[in-house]
Amino acid sequence: MSAVSRRIWRWLGITSCACCFAVAASGRRAPAVQQGPAQSAETPPVFRAERNEVEVVVVVRDSNGQAVGNLEPSDFEIRDNGKRQSITSFSVQGARLPDPAPKSRSAQPPLAAASASGTRRRFVALFFDDVHTETGEFGRVQATAKQFVLEGLPTEDRVAIFKASKNGAATFTNDKPKLLGAIDGLRAQPTKNISTTTQCPRITDYESYLIANDLDQEALNVVTQRLLDCTGPPPRTAGCPGLNDLKTMAKGDAEEVWQSQQDASHRLVAALDLTVRVLGTMPGSRKK
Hints:
Number of helices: 7
Radius of gyration: 34 Å
Helix content: 40-55%
């Protein structure tokens, strides 16, 4: 039983007790009242009960991300702890339906049209993972974000930009030139694994994960062989470190690489947490 259902049952229980008390009180007063033959029968008690309605806000979008407005109550099903509930009232709000008269659009400003249709303002966060995205791929992400601002951003909505790297004060705005300029100013700052380019031995991110977490002994053997080639390239002399010492050094290098990647992931999660908390302070309903 949900929290709403429990509150309704507690309310009904209180109402029933009040009714019982009223009947008992009237029963005690009955002997003191002189009633005629026509009024000898006691009036049966009347029990009344009420129920609360819970508002459920739903946004339905098609495959293109556009709101769908031509829906009926039969298109929805609401359940509480698995039990189907009846829909007592139904209304469509804020759906952008096709305009039967395109010429009339120019006669009404966008803000006035949105207000007249009852469209609710949304607060949108554009989050850019500039830490785990390479420069070439990040450019395509920027292009997609700018297309959204130019073509998919309703006039009444407000947008703020967040990054996986350091964030400043978040400002929600619908100023498209300002948003486009902010998106253009973003730069990819991927966490580089220098061992794959300059360090010897070379250790990939995946190898560092396997070795640091003791998941693959063969991966450690491969990196140890690379380290041997770095410290004592053929022909080797008798002064080369022993195999066990090389394995210890290889594991230490792998753990250093893996720690760097973990730190970058923790910063990403912290930035996402900040984004969600800022959105939580904005006005309006919350949709899951």
